[in-house]
Amino acid sequence: MRFNDGRSPWQRLRTHVMVFDIPLALVILALLSVGLVTLYSAGIAIPGKVSDQLRNIAAAFLVMWLAANVPPQTLMRVAVPAYALAVALLVAVALAGTIKGGSRRWITIGIQLQPSEFMKIAMPLMLAWFFQRQAGQLRWQVYAIAALLLVVPVLLIARQPDLGTAMLVVAAGACVIFLAGLSWKALAALVAAACAGMPLLWAVMHDYQRERVLTLIDPYHDPLGKGFHIIQSMIAIGSGGAAGKGWTHGTQAHLEFIPERTTDFIFAVFSEEFGLTGNLVLMVLYLLLIWRGLSIALNASTFFTRLLAGAITMIYFTYAFVNMGMVSGIVPVVGVPLPFMSYGGTALLTLGLAAGILMSIQRHSRGVRNPSGAPAWGALA
User: Fold this and answer.
1) Is the alpha carbon torsion for 262, 244, 314, 68 positive or negative?
2) Given Cys at both, which of 116, 240, 268, 374 links 233, Cβ 3.0 to 4.6 Å?
């Protein structure tokens, strides 16, 4: 049986089933596998962690597959409603959100939601749509409006307070603005203005945020208090040496010196057990992830998809850099998970959605489809 276009039912079906970009999917699978191995060791005294993470991974791949089936034209149509909904939910959180651990980040609408996670994707979608509409007439007023679209949700997120998520949203939005054509001179002026505004930022920071900055500068000023966790994390990384202590043989993790060892500080567990060699392999995997994202961005067929793919790639880079940096003691601790390795559901779903969008962009890129209409799985940009 064949349809009017000459394709069999299987040929039509596989265009919706076989949608994963093979290079990107393989890198993600490798990171997830490394994460599961590390999670097993880190959570060996916490039953159910690995099985829960497997369910999270299954849900993330489902979201990835669904997103990969959504054409970029549809993404453009939902950009404004998604941004407006995310901002509305952030406002609702500020007015009547649930407080946990001193932060107001969640809202209950039948289920409990953390709207700031949605903004990680909604922000680059909105800005990419905005610059697509303004293509050919990019004056300073356009960049000012884009900056306003970025600042409003960032302030709402920072107010919760959630500095880590605010940083990720800023990175994604700033990447879109820069890739849209912002000059290096303007970028240098913005960086200079940001540096000049540091004293003002310090004045409005919460006490615990100031403590994190001071702890970064000198963790040993309070080694048994504020600096304890980062000191133990650095000890774990250093004690791994070149080859590591071996899987499940990390003492810092199993003696419970490392905080949040299955989530934000899982890199310290990995470093202690697999050493410098393992870290180099892990960094290569993240570099391949970023390289593939940039390849998809360069091969994208429209201004909108190029900006969106570039911003999503920057999200991955920021996640990995900030997490490894805070665990290693070179950036303040802000609660950013290590992508595709840390335990958690919401962040993994967000990362899966981002990967699915990249795969959709690749499927609809220049020269990716073959005459049968099926995606060319091995095509590289």
Assistant:
1) negative
2) 268
In-domain check, residue 375: no
Q: How far is CA 297 from CA 281, 289, 309, in A?
A: 24, 13, 5
Q: How far is CA 93 from the centre of its chain?
A: 22
Question: Tens digit of pLDDT for each residue in 327-336?
Answer: 988 888 887 8
Structural domain span for residue 269: 75-337
CA distances from 215 to 231, 324, 331, 333 (A): 10, 16, 10, 9
- d(C-alpha 20, C-alpha 377), whole Å: 8
Nearest to 83 by CA among 160, 178, 172: 172
- 180 touches 302 (CB < 8 A): no
DSSP codes of every residue in 56-92: HHHHHHHHHHHHHTS-HHHHHHHHHHHHHHHHHHHHH
Alpha-carbon span 270 to 283, nearest angstrom: 12
* Under 8 Å between Cβ of 90 and 116: yes
Q: What domain count does the chain have?
A: 1
Question: Which two tokens mark 68?
Answer: 């990969």
Report phi then psi at 348, rounded to 5: -65, -35
Residue 227 lies inside a defined structural domain of this protein:
yes
Domain membership of residue 114 (yes or no) is yes
Q: What whole-number distance in Å separates Cα of residue 251 and Cα of residue 272?
A: 8
Q: What is the pLDDT of residues 34-53, one digit of tens each?
A: 999 999 998 887 888 899 99
The distance of Cα 280 from the centroid of its chain, to the nearest Å, equals: 21
pLDDT tens per residue, range 167-200 = 889 888 988 998 888 877 877 887 787 778 777 7
| Domain assignment of residue 22, yes or no | no
Cα Rg of the chain (Å, integer): 22
